[in-house]
Design a protein that fits this description.
There is one protein chain. 77% of the residues lie in helices and 2% in strands. Strands 1-2 form a two-stranded antiparallel sheet. A hairpin with a 4-residue loop joins strand 1 (279-281) and strand 2. The protein has 14 helices and two strands; from the N terminus they run ααααααααααααββαα. Helix 8 crosses helix 9. It has a single domain (16-315), classed as Formate dehydrogenase/DMSO reductase fold (Up-down Bundle). The chain is mainly α and 333 residues long. The protein has helices spanning 4-9, 17-46, 52-62, 66-69, 71-83, 85-94, 96-116, 122-152, 160-185, 192-218, 229-251, 254-276, 288-291, 295-322, and strands spanning 279-281, 286-287. It is a multi-pass membrane protein. One of its GO terms (molecular function) is electron transfer activity. The chain crosses the membrane at residues 20-49, 70-89, 95-112, 132-152, 158-181, 201-219, 225-248, 255-280, 300-323. Keywords: Cell membrane, Membrane, Transmembrane, Transmembrane helix. It is found in: Cell membrane.
Length: 333
């Protein structure tokens, strides 16, 4: 029987709740980077399309999803604040410029398509089309910079690690966006989208290797940080998934390519989590056990999350089911 005394004394059912919440925080971040990542990638690909109808098709493909996908960023921030408030406060105060940059890019990315459709004037649409591209590229780049700085414990917003990891995340979102657009509108978009996806996944691998090299020079443990079995497995899996992505999208197996992009995204986030553990805030020297909230609120949050998170997942299942299937070239945003 669950009582106030038991909730105060010990973790719920003896579970390793600090580690589970650590994993949950990064799983939520990975979910956001994948779901909103293909929206970002579609926005970047938008810049390569000259045909008005093709651009309308890109906007139609992401239209039902992008605002819902951003929910996962809010859930990630909420989970970090609820379980690790000291980490939340430290990260967001040290990197407030990056946070404002990310929010600004997200606002621009969300506002631009709405404004783009308000007037069918060439100059107007050119301006807002460019704004859409800038927001779509800047958001993942700054998110990657934030993750890189978090991992190495840098208090600065602009670092070599941040730039390289930001580029890695941006390339990954473009690969995801190409696969998503091929799933939703392969016949309505030019074959160049396929080539962009393959180029992006190759760039992702190159930038991942570069990121690992920079991290080896930045982390206190150096190269030894990458010699553990989980890290080696994640790196090998990323190479295999990138190869699978390229083969799948070349052969027109677009759903398999999108699944590979999902695996790459979660694998990248898992790599950051594994490299950081047991610390959760390297800049402050805080470990997971030190940063977690006390037992009673931790248990209550765990119960609430177990009840509410399935409802959020169910909403997204319904959303993606309702708008499943390919779109036609005649559909509008």
């Amino acid at each position: 029987m669950i009582s106030v005394e038991s909730l105060t004394a010990n973790p719920l059912f003896g579970l390793p709740l600090p580690e589970l919440w650590y994993a949950l925080v990064f799983a939520l971040l990975g979910t956001f980077l994948f779901l909103d990542g293909f929206d970002f990638g579609a926005g970047a690909i938008f810049a390569t399309l000259d045909d008005t109808q093709a651009r309308e098709t890109v906007l139609s493909a992401i239209g039902p999803f992008w605002d819902g996908n951003e929910v996962w960023l809010v859930v990630f921030g909420g989970a970090l604040f609820a379980a690790f408030p000291a980490v939340y406060a430290g990260l967001f105060s040290r990197h407030y410029l990056l946070m404002f940059g990310i929010l600004g890019a997200l606002i621009l990315r969300g506002l631009a398509p709405e404004m783009y459709e308000q007037r069918h004037d060439e100059r107007w649409q050119r301006w807002w089309g460019r704004s859409f591209v800038v927001g779509s590229v800047l958001a993942p780049f700054l998110l990657g910079a934030f993750a890189g700085n978090w991992l190495v414990g840098s208090p600065r917003s602009l670092t070599l690690v941040g730039v390289v990891v930001g580029g890695t995340v941006t390339a990954l979102t473009i690969a995801s966006g190409a696969a998503f657009l091929r799933v939703k509108a392969a016949r309505a978009l030019p074959q160049s989208v396929k080539r962009i996806g393959i180029t992006a996944v190759v760039m992702y691998l190159i930038l991942t290797v570069s990121s690992l090299g920079v991290l080896a020079a930045s982390l206190p443990s150096g190269v030894n940080a990458f010699l553990s079995i989980p890290v080696l497995v994640l790196v090998a899996a990323s190479v295999a998934l990138a190869g699978g992505y390229a083969i799948a999208i070349r052969r027109g197996a677009n759903l398999a390519a999108l699944a590979s992009a999902a695996g790459l995204t979660y694998g990248l986030v898992a790599l950051v989590a594994v490299l950081m553990y047991p610390r959760i805030d390297p800049a402050a020297g805080l470990t997971v056990e030190e940063a977690i909230v006390s037992t009673l609120p931790l248990n209550l949050m765990s119960i609430g999350t177990a009840l509410l998170l399935p409802l959020v997942v169910t909403y997204f299942v319904v959303l993606y089911s309702a708008f499943s299937g390919p779109i036609t070239g005649g559909e509008a945003y």
